[in-house]
Amino acid sequence: MAVTAGTVRVWGAGLGVVVLWASAFPAIRVAAPELGVVGLSFVRLAVAAIALLAVAPVFGVRPPAPRDLHLILACGLAGMTAYQLLLNQGELSVPAGTASILVASAPLVSVGLAAVALGERQHAWSAAASPSPASRWCACPGPGSGCPAMYGWSSAQLSSKGSTTP
Question: 74 and 82 in contact (C-beta within 8 Å)?
Answer without folding.
Answer: no
